[in-house]
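Need a sequence for this fold. Nothing fancy.
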């Protein structure tokens, strides 16, 4: 395949091809996106930084943190110059730093909008972790800031490069096993078991809706790419069993999505149980993933048998391809508009649970 044709297919969202960044390696080997990580929590330390280090198309050149005690370790580990160390107050000054092309936002959801917009205004591309922001209005501001800066805004939806999820997406996109007749999905863990002092996940300011934001965003995502359609409405409820732990946010969430084919799908997210799956019944049999959303160990099944893929470093594939989008000035398959779409559904789930009424969707923009 000619490189030009490959790029054209990629721009149109030929997702499986994004699993093969090595096809670019000979051409792009010496070109790298210089990345600053904003927020040095566990995800940044254990997943994103190693993924950047492993990528042929990225290099970790700077850090942005509010925790001074973390700086020496990161500088030593990644050979980061002191002039490339920023905090949340002075990050705007990186506009004058040619050693930063892109900022990866790894902070809690509550401040995604602020740090994304400031990074874009500083003239940098942005990869923002999911969920994109607390509200749809926040997402709108982020998207507008990217357009004004003429920079790329991408969301950290790593599962778009996981072979199991990609296989599910392609099967549903092509109706390989016929139309779906039933759908259910859930992602939950016992967060209260691991809570510590100052856990941002237990605060409304940083985690907005608790489990439905932290984990439910994956479930919403998988509903979109499984149905290959937009829902018409949502009906939801939330409740809490352990008020001594969940003082600001609900502990459990359940919701039902109504689709144009007349079907109702059922979903859940909770901080009080374990679940990790997406399941569909189609005209030719069952297809799904269990576990579905983990960093590793995903397993899938189809009417044709078990999915068989080797283990992958999801975040590395994500970084490879999001950096290639920047280097080649091509649209990415997980843009800000996708993040906005999902936040719209998360907001609607919360509204429905609060009012005990169905929320109707109109005019999805993505």
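Here you go.
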């Amino acid at each position: 395949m000619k490189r030009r044709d490959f790029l054209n297919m990629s721009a149109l969202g030929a997702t499986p091809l994004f699993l093969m960044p090595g096809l670019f390696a000979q051409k792009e080997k010496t070109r790298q996106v210089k990345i600053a990580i904003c927020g040095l929590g566990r995800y940044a330390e254990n997943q994103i930084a190693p993924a950047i280090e492993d990528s042929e198309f990225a290099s970790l050149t700077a850090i942005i943190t509010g925790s001074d005690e973390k700086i020496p370790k990161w500088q030593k580990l990644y050979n980061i110059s002191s002039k490339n160390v920023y905090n949340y107050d002075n990050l705007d000054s990186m506009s004058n730093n040619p050693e930063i092309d892109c900022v990866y936002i790894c902070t809690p959801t509550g401040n995604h909008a602020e740090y994304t917009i400031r990074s874009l205004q500083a003239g940098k591309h942005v990869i923002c972790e999911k969920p994109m922001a607390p509200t749809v209005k926040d997402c709108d501001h982020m998207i507008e800031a990217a357009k004004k800066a003429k920079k790329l805004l991408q969301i950290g939806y790593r599962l778009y490069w996981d072979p199991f999820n990609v296989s599910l997406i392609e099967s549903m996109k092509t109706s390989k096993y016929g139309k779906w007749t039933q759908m259910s999905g859930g992602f939950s863990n016992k967060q209260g078991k691991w809570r510590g002092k100052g856990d941002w996940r237990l605060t409304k300011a940083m985690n907005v809706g608790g489990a439905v934001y932290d984990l439910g965003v994956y479930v919403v995502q998988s509903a979109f790419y499984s149905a290959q359609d937009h829902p018409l409405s949502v009906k939801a409820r939330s409740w809490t069993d352990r008020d001594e732990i969940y003082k600001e946010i609900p502990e459990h969430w359940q919701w039902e999505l109504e689709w144009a084919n007349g079907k109702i799908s059922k979903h859940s997210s909770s901080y009080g149980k374990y679940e990790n799956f997406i399941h569909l019944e189609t005209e030719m049999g069952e297809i799904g993933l269990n576990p579905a959303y983990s960093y590793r160990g995903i397993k899938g099944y189809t009417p044709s048998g078990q999915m068989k893929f080797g283990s992958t470093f999801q975040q590395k594939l994500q970084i490879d391809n999001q950096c290639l989008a920047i280097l080649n000035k091509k649209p990415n398959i997980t843009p800000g508009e996708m993040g906005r779409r999902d936040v719209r559904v998360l907001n609607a789930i919360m509204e429905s649970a609060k009012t005990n009424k169905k929320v109707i969707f109109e005019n999805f923009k993505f």
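For context: Residues 336-355 form the longest helix (20 residues).
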